[in-house]
Amino acid sequence: MSQDTREFLEKLKSTVGVAGELAQQGLDAAGKAAVEAWDTAKLRWKKAEVQGDVQRLYREVGRLIYKAHTDKEAQTDGLDDLFAALDEKTAQVEAYKQELRARRGEALCTTCGAKIGDGDAFCRRCGEKIKPKTEETTGDGGGV
Ligand SMILES: [Zn+2]
């Protein structure tokens, strides 16, 4: 493992508490497992970072709304930008979560993201039909 990687994992350990164990695994494991743990650790870090952004945005939104409540003259124009940023960051977090779940080998509903049990034909949350596990690329093209 490179010095760089080691440093990153050490930093990760001190920065993101929950990932500490994973970072430790990254330090201890060897070969392929290490690379996978490392990729997952990076993903977890990125997710935690974006989640931090989301928390900051929530606080900012709260501040503006409370300001509008206490001071009727207060400007709340900034809210739309904050909401747009929140939409984006929330989608990012969701994408990271999905990828992390996929790494754990969990099947997910493509519509609502709920976990899908083995052999389920429909999503237990939203009722979406589950596509069988195949290497399916985008619909068009090919054909017989
Ligand atoms: Zn669903």
Q: Give the beta-strand count.
A: 2
Which percent band covers the strand fraction? under 5%
- Overall average pLDDT: 81
User: What separation lies between the terminal Cα atoms?
Assistant: 48 Å
Give the number of domains.
2
Which blocks of ≥5 consecutive residues have pLDDT under 50? Answer: none
Q: What is the 3D form? A: flat
Strand order of the largest sheet: 1-2
* Discrete helix count: 4
Radius of gyration: 21 Å
The helix/strand series, from N terminus to C terminus, equals HHHHEE
Largest sheet: 2 strands, antiparallel
Helix content: 55-70%
Which ligands appear in the coordinates?
A: zinc ion
- Which structural class do the helices and strands define? mainly alpha
Could you characterize the architecture of this molecule?
The chain is mostly helical. The protein has 2 domains: 3-105, no CATH class; 108-144, no CATH class. It has 4 helices and 2 strands. Helix 2 packs antiparallel against helix 3 (31-70). The longest helix has 40 residues, at 31-70. The mean pLDDT is 81. The site of zinc ion (ZN) has 8 residues, from loops. Residues 109, 111-112, 114, 123, 125-126, 128 line the site of zinc ion (ZN).
